[in-house]
Amino acid sequence: MASQRSSTIILAVLGILASIGASSPDTDTTRRGRLTLRSDTTAYSSAKGAEIPVYNPDSILISGYDKPLRSLRETFFATNHYSSAVTSLTVEMTYHNDDDMLHSRVITIPCDIPSGETRQLYTTAWDRQYTYYYHRTRITPKSKGAIAYEVKIVPLSITTRRAEPSDAP
Predict the structure, then answer these.
(1) Which of 48, 113, 118, 161 has the fewest CB atoms within 10 Å, i.e. is most exposed?
(2) What is the pLDDT of residues 80-89, one digit of tens each?
(3) Could you read off the pLDDT of 84-143 as tens digits, one per residue?
(4) Contacts for 48-51 with beta carbons within 8 Å, 24 or more apart?
């Protein structure tokens, strides 16, 4: 009888401790107060170091594209001639074989390209069967079933980092 009573007390104490631990401030994820949208433009644009979308990416130069046969990645260089650092780049990539369009896609690539500098960017290859290769690739394929293609990369938009205000009066 005493052992049953002590086990009941132990279970009650463990239950109380578990309920106290479950509602500790560390694990309470209930949000209180009024919620605000993260896309609130006034808060977004006034934040120190905030990112700004730019829809006229004429100051981005794309060069040096490559995708060898059976490669998992496509690589190219992006040069930033914009006045601020670029934090993401959205491009349209269109793949052609002779006069036929093979594929087209729009992708956004996160990056960090300071003003006036060039960075190598990469994306997952569009060729899921690994049978296509870029016609100017540095690695010549030996497979007879390999198909050459050309690509056109058009920058659509960039995201830049807002310059931080100086502390000088």
Answers:
(1) 48
(2) 999 899 999 9
(3) 999 999 999 999 998 899 999 999 999 999 999 999 999 999 999 999 999 999 988 998
(4) 48/162, 48/164, 48/165, 49/161, 49/162, 49/164, 50/161, 50/162, 51/87, 51/88, 51/159, 51/160, 51/161, 51/162
Q: Which two tokens stand for residue 9?
A: 């007390």
β-strand partners of 63: 77
Enumerate the β-bridge partners of residue 86. 113, 160
- Which run of H or E residues covers position 160? strand 147-161
pTM: 0.66
**Type of residue at 156:** L
What's the pLDDT score for residue 63? 97
CA atoms of 118 and 113, how far apart (whole Å)? 7
The CA distances from residue 158 to 41, 108, 110, in Å, are 17, 9, 10
How much is the pLDDT for 40?
A: 37
Residue 136 region, left (φ>0) first, then alpha (ψ -120 to 50), else beta?
alpha
Instruction: For residue 44, give the 3-state DSSP assignment.
Output: helix
